[in-house]
Amino acid sequence: MKYQVHWVDNHAKSHNIHGTYATFEEAKQSIFNWWNLNNFEPYYVRLWTKNGVTTFDYGSHYMFYEIYEIEDKTFKKQLELVLKGED
Questions:
Q1: How confident is the model at residue 61, as a pLDDT?
Q2: Would you say which domain of life the source belongs to (predicted)?
Q3: CB neighbours of 71 closer than 8 A, spacing ≥ 6?
Q4: How many Å apart are CA 40 and CA 8, to the nearest integer?
Q5: Least packed by Cβ within 10 Å: which of 8, 47, 56, 67?
Q6: Cα 61 vs. chain centroid, distance in angstroms?
Q7: How many Å apart are CA 64 and CA 46, to the nearest integer?
Q8: Terminal-residue alpha carbon distance, the chain
Q9: What is the pTM of this model?
């Protein structure tokens, strides 16, 4: 299992891959590292998991991080669904 971090801007309908990591903890830490690197401190962080996707709500009304559980053999299929908005 791998974990892929996506940054999602629902307002602009933008979806960027932030990175792929070996563990969930590494994926989560990559978000915190980016915030630290860019001197960003969210007012709050709320997260939930549904259908293998953990969503990080960090205060913006339309921007989120999502961590996808990716099985190596189904990676391509899952990524295609995500990019089509069918996740």
A1: 80
A2: Bacteria
A3: 1, 2, 78
A4: 17
A5: 47
A6: 16
A7: 10
A8: 18
A9: 0.77
Among residues 78, 83, 77, 53, the alpha carbon closest in space to that of 66 is found at 53
Q: By residue range, what is the domain housing residue 14?
A: 2-84
The neighbour count for residue 1, using CB atoms within 10 Å, is 10
Question: What is the amino acid identity at position 2?
Answer: K
Q: How many CB atoms are closer than 10 A to CB 46?
A: 11
30 token code pair: 């990559």
Q: Evaluate whether 51 touches 40 at the Cβ level (below 8 Å).
A: no
Q: Which two tokens stand for residue 39?
A: 């001197």
pLDDT in tens, 46-77: 999 998 899 999 987 888 999 999 877 666 66
Average pLDDT over every residue of 8-25: 90
Q: How many domains does the chain have?
A: 1
